[in-house]
Design a protein that fits this description.
Layout: H1 5-11, H2 16-20, E1 30-33, E2 37-41, E3 51-55, H3 67-80, E4 90-97, E5 111-115, H4 120-123, E6 130-132, E7 149-157, E8 160-166, H5 175-184, H6 197-206
Antiparallel strand pairs: 1-2, 2-3, 3-5, 4-5, 4-7, 6-8, 7-8
Length: about 210
């Protein structure tokens, strides 16, 4: 897709240097990849570690993942679990759907991954949500009503992914980054304002890249 930063980076991991600049001491920001997804240190991370999992295919949401992409996504979570500063419990979240309809900023699926020590899965309380405990085995049509816009938060532990998903609050920009900022007591949540090289580099070092 033209002008998509994640499509460009998926085609050449070296593309990251173009937006990370000369201060970035690595040739790229990748910590995991296979034939379906790749994982990178998140831009302007709020905590360490902070990883994004991205499918190469240009889709708007993780609900559009095919079986191979879902398998690779779980494989990536397995890799991250207990590595690079992550404990055995991991939290994920996604501002799903197209940017103009949701709280997402980029029209290419990207799943945020942080450690569960922040308890964001438990601290996000929605009145209206659906609970999914076997996402990787669900067919896409089961979740069709969510494809245009949604908020999704999950917890991965012991090779099991549990998800909460809702249509509420979808127009609140960078919803989960705001909530995480509240939890950690940090006023900075907008990734456009501060790249936060220090936290990015710290995460790369933890993965011994």
């Amino acid at each position: 897709m033209n002008n998509c930063i994640f499509c460009a980076e998926g085609k050449s991991f070296l593309k990251a240097k173009e937006f990370l600049g000369d201060r970035w001491p690595y040739p790229n920001r990748v910590v995991f990849f296979d034939s379906n997804v790749y994982a990178v240190v998140g831009y302007s991370p709020q905590v360490v570690p902070y990883i994004l999992i991205i499918p190469y295919r240009h889709i708007n949401s993780m609900l559009e993942m095919n079986k191979n992409e879902k398998d690779s996504f779980i494989k990536c979570l397995d890799f991250l679990s207990g590595q690079g500063g992550y404990s055995q419990q991991i939290s994920i979240f996604e501002h799903g759907g197209k940017a103009e309809n949701s709280s997402s900023s980029i029209d290419h699926c990207h799943i945020h991954v942080i450690d569960e020590q922040w308890k964001i899965f438990e601290k996000i309380n929605w009145n209206n949500f659906e609970y999914i405990d076997n996402f990787e085995k669900k067919e896409c049509n089961y979740l069709d009503s969510y494809l245009d816009s949604y908020l999704l938060i999950g917890k991965y532990t012991s090779r099991k992914l549990c998800i909460k998903i809702t249509h509420d609050n979808i127009n609140e920009h960078q919803y989960f980054r705001k909530k995480l900022a509240e939890i950690i007591g940090d006023k900075k949540w907008d990734w456009r304002i501060d790249m936060n090289y220090e936290k990015m580099i710290e995460t790369m070092r933890l993965f011994k890249v």
